[in-house]
Amino acid sequence: MSLAMTPAEREAFLAEAHVAVVTVADDDGRGPLAVPLWYDYRPGGEIILVTDADSRKTQLIRRAGRVTVCAQTQEMPYRYASVEGPVTAIEDTVTVEQRWELARRYLGREGADGYIEATRGVTDRMCAIHVRPERWLTRDYTKAGG
């Protein structure tokens, strides 16, 4: 019995609100950079990462043109989806509304309001990175039974 998720299962899992670890190659002789990020995803679509446009992470993503995004559960039995793919676009401007929608995904309506108010000054520094899922590695240990 395979513990791999089916295509429908993996897309539904990735569409849930998990903090992802985004990994990108570093060509300066260092190991790959791995950082936790909020993301947005709709089944069949692209993964969207909203982050600081001037960060080391964004500079590396622009250079590499590919990332790996890994989302996982924190409780047993564990489930995860690791997705590698090309960056298809980087939007150099992000609106407060885009940031609010992403915050609402993770914090709910009231939490998103507070988060946006507390971080309103950073919106002009943000960008949206689009990633097309290309290669998937998944495990769903709920399929193991017991």
UniProtKB/TrEMBL annotation:
Keywords annotated in UniProt: Oxidoreductase
Coiled coil: none
Repeat listed as a keyword: no
Domain Pyridoxamine 5'-phosphate oxidase N-terminal: 8-138
Domain of life, source organism: Bacteria
Keyword Oxidoreductase on entry: yes
SUPFAM superfamilies assigned: FMN-binding split barrel (SSF50475)
Pfam family, one: PNPOx_N
UniProt name for this protein: Pyridoxamine 5'-phosphate oxidase family protein
Species this chain originates from: Pseudonocardia humida
